Q: What sequence folds into this?
């Protein structure tokens, strides 16, 4: 049987606790850390679409090079569950603060080193360059595997009981902020450099700049004290010796449900970022023919929308603004109507979106921009509440481990293989994204079912709850 936190009822009094952390410090630390982490992750995703296929996986077949690049992109998602176990263990053993510093350093150093790697076009580095890129990508995933859960707990475990969903939106806001920072930098570089200069060394700049952001994030996090919830676990001597064993013993069902609750969010997330950037910037058949790039078998060419890289990145950035707005909107909605009900409605909307995205993408600039805005708005509505609903499934002394495992197992199912599947489905449909939309709709069905089997957690105790 699973252990569940005691319910207090809709009209229960708010939990009272002494909070040594100022509200602005909690919000800044949770937001700054995830913004940096997602910045690091996004610049890799962008480079995986635009740069790495040419520099690290050169091939006569562009689709093969792109698939190889996205395969390495997926390595981070294999590493993330490992990171969730590793950092979850320390987060539930020694505390949230110290663990969050370690996750930021792990990912930040790996990202910086990517900017220093020689490429596979460098003589003597044909094997070692891709290999080291895989290693750095694994380390990125390791860090992010522990980062998200810790940032979510930092926000929600410092929040009043009736504002947990609102506080939980701040670490989630790091995703659109990181995206805007990373991709705006790519746009500026594209606008100020020739393609030759950008491919030669300009792509390295976003990775090297991450070092400055990491230093700022560390400065904010070092100023924090431990969260009241974990402090109470230590005061009551209820720290678990092996959190991984305990959480699978007492909360295995919550891990399964949490994994599938997050599934549609992940699929939508990487459809709207990695896939749309690839699809949007791939040349149309006519453009490829004019440029002499159809190859020996023109019928095998997989066309895209034909937008210039800089133009499409700007379209994405506009859409991500709506991602940020609706992430903030999701907190009050989840607090008022409950996490479960709000996410059921949102997941239903994602299912419908899977069917309407293809007609929109075929409706010219207005249709494409509308599709991006609609998808990113849904992204905000589904992503925002995840920082509160997943941690609320678990008691305080295994909360870091439990929520991190659920979040990152879902990344394997919903994100590790998703970009490669998207590319394969796109090619199967001869350049149409119709099967990609159906794949998203199918993931929404699985998330909807998981939510139906999940209880509402809004009125549960949180700070004082331990197994």
A:
């Amino acid at each position: 049987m699973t252990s569940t936190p005691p319910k207090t009822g809709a009209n229960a009094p708010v939990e009272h606790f002494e909070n040594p952390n100022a509200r602005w410090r909690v919000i800044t630390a949770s937001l700054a850390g995830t913004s940096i982490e997602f910045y690091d992750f996004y610049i890799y995703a962008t480079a995986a679409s635009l740069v790495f296929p040419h520099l690290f996986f050169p091939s006569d077949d562009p689709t093969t090079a792109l698939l190889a690049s996205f395969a390495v992109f997926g390595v981070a998602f294999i590493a993330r569950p490992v990171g969730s176990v590793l950092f979850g263990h320390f987060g539930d053993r020694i505390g949230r603060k110290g663990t969050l510093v370690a996750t930021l350093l792990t990912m930040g150093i790996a990202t910086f080193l990517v900017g220093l790697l020689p490429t596979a076009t460098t003589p003597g580095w044909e094997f070692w360059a891709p290999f080291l890129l895989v290693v750095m990508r694994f380390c990125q995933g390791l860090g992010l595997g522990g980062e998200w859960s810790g940032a979510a707990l930092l926000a929600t475990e410092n929040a009043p009981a009736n504002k947990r969903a609102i506080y939980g939106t701040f670490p989630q806001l790091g995703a659109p902020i990181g995206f805007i920072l990373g991709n705006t930098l790519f746009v500026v570089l594209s606008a100020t450099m020739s393609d030759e200069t950008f491919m030669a060394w300009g792509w390295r700049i976003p990775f090297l700049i991450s070092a400055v952001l990491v230093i700022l994030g560390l400065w904010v996090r070092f100023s924090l004290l431990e969260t009241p919830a974990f402090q109470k676990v230590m005061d009551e001597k209820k720290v678990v010796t092996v959190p991984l064993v305990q959480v699978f013993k007492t909360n295995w069902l919550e891990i399964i449900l949490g994994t599938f609750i997050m599934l549609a969010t992940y699929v939508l997330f990487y459809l709207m970022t990695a896939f749309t950037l690839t699809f949007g910037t791939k040349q149309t058949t006519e453009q490829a023919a004019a440029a002499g790039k159809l190859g020996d078998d023109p019928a095998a060419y997989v066309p895209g929308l034909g937008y210039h890289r800089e133009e499409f990145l700007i379209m994405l950035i506009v859409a991500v603004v709506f991602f940020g707005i609706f992430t903030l909107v999701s907190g009050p909605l989840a607090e008022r109507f409950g996490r479960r009900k709000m996410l059921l409605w949102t997941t239903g909307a994602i299912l419908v979106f899977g069917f309407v995205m293809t007609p929109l993408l075929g409706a010219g600039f207005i249709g494409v921009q509308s599709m991006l805005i609609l998808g990113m708005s849904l992204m905000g509505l589904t992503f925002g509440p995840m920082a509160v609903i997943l941690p609320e499934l678990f008691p305080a002394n295994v909360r870091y481990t439990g929520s991190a495992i659920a979040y990152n197992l879902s990344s394997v199912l919903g994100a590790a293989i998703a970009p490669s599947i998207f590319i394969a489905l796109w090619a199967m449909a001869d350049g149409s994204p119709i099967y990609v939309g159906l794949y998203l709709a199918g993931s929404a069905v699985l998330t909807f079912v998981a939510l139906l089997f999940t209880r509402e957690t809004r009125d549960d105790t949180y700070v004082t709850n331990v197994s």
User: Anything to note?
Assistant: The chain has 20 helices and no strands. Residues 23-227+236-452 form a domain with the Growth Hormone; Chain: A; fold (CATH 1.20.1250.20).
